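Q: Convert this sequence to structure tokens.
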Amino acid sequence: MSRPVVAHLVDDTTPGGVMRVLNHIVTSKEMAQTGQHQLHPVRRGALPFRRIKADVIVSHLAVSWRTLPSLIALRALHADLRLIHVEHSYTECSTALNVKHKHRFMTLLRTAYSLFDRVVAVSHDQARWFGARSLVARANLVVIPSTVDLDQFRVLATPGPEIRVVGAMGRLHRQKGFDTLIRAFVACEPRDMELHIHGDGPERAALETLAEGDPRIRFFGHSDDPVAVMATLDAVAVPSRWEAYGLVALEARAAGRLVLAANVDGLKDQISEGASGVACASVAAWSHALNGLAYLTVPQSARGVQNTRMAQREQQFAAQWETVISGQDVRHVMPRRVTRTPVQR
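A:
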């Protein structure tokens, strides 16, 4: 039996978590068993008005009023094909912080998502929000947590017992909350601990100004080798204001690093699986959490449990995608409820 051709449409190919997940999808041996996965970059809001040669089409496209006509045309041109949308961006917190006319925005999302046979949430908390706002029909909603190849992270040497270097990785944008992290680090007590910030973006100059006067804070710019970066870190901080999933936290956990994560959106999934939650986004809360790193270690037994979980992620990811691609009933992979309460440390 031939494998179905699966066309993945993407309108933002800048380096980041979405492209890393897509590269994993098209190169993974496990995913290759589910179909012939092909990447189709397109210009935002300007999908070609012609049929795409595929058996299944997966949208990783931005949803906006501007792009809605193209999404409608995509559905009309492929009325006989299975269309799937993966929502990498919108979350409860991103909407609360960035959307002025929320009722109008919810109407947009309901309209856009109704064009697809399945909508994939990349975290359980995102799926919970979809359900609470009735954005997606329950029968059409599935949760597939993002993943990449974690093997190289899993074999990194375990850090020593003392936390000397805390890392923060990602685009230097308001979303990532690095301003709060820097203020908190300046206020924290351990003078022999360093904060290494890896990434680039529009807030770099402002963040460097914010860190001036504290020699413990260093900026390294963007790196194309996240494994090499992770090898230099003892712990990882993820202070995002919103985050659909939080790939950096997953990679850090796979590498056996202690993870401090904000209690928002998809990071709640990370907290339920072993990251330490920071209960609020205040400078005081993050400074308290950073101070607490001096007293935390990762037992080797815990590292072993994480390794077992991480080794299974690729197989689980591929199995979930196979279910969605084939059109099987997805009710058995509907969102679980995250009940663990994050603790501030």
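Residues 331-345 have pLDDT under 50 and may be disordered.
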